[in-house]
Amino acid sequence: MSKNYKLFLFILIALILFIIIGPLYWLVVTSLKPAKDLYATVTLIPRRIIFLHYLELFTQTEFLEYVKNSVIVCTFSTVLTVTVSALAAYSIIRVRLPHRSQIAKSIIFVYLIPRSLLFIPLFVVAHKLGLVDNIWILVLAYPTFLIPFCTWVLMGTFKAIPKDIEDAASIDGCTPLQAFRKVVLPLARPGIWAATLYAFALSLNEYLYALTLLHTRRTIPTGIAFFMLGDAYLWGKIGAASIIVILPLTVLFVFTSRLLTSGLAGAVKY
User: Fold this and answer.
1) Thinking of the domain 61-233+245-269, which architecture would CATH place it in?
2) I need a surface site. Which of 31, 81, 115, 150 has the fewest CB within 10 A?
């Protein structure tokens, strides 16, 4: 490998890291700068570090209410999504359904449909059900885009598990449901974990449905948007809120990256 090629790779990796880490670093700097320094000369290192924005976020805003709403919505929508996706993926892989290949392809096609085309029909349905401005409508709405993706991930995971293991379990007296619960699910743990993490992260960051279906109640993304008051942007609070949301997910993804990548590998194999 020539020196020029190594230099090119180094510059390319450095550029990619800058694109990825740069915005995160700027969020941290923004959340730690005093308000008057945010509109002064741009500096990569803050002249003074304060935690006032974090304190004001919890004492002067309804951020804790936003967090509570998001946790409720994300938790229940993730549990519903992973449960339905696991059953759907297992059925497609193991049950001899007619046109099984077309069904599998249609699932990923549904995932690719832009959410901007669906929020109006969803609002009409929510209005007729009397669930507008109720956070539980998001628990029902989010699986519409989470289930197709998670099903696609889990189809590859279940396909990678040898069917002989289930046959051995049935010989030992297990029903198909018992074999699925006691044998298949433990082996599919990486894929299920990957589907769970991505479902939770996608629902946590969802903005359009939460803005459309909720009027007085807010999740974290819509709550942060209300820190923009007309032409006044509360950059310190926006940065602090963003860091609080990003940090737990980042730590979780880093410490479970091996399990996550092995789970997604099954989807690629499919």
Assistant:
1) Orthogonal Bundle (1.10)
2) 115
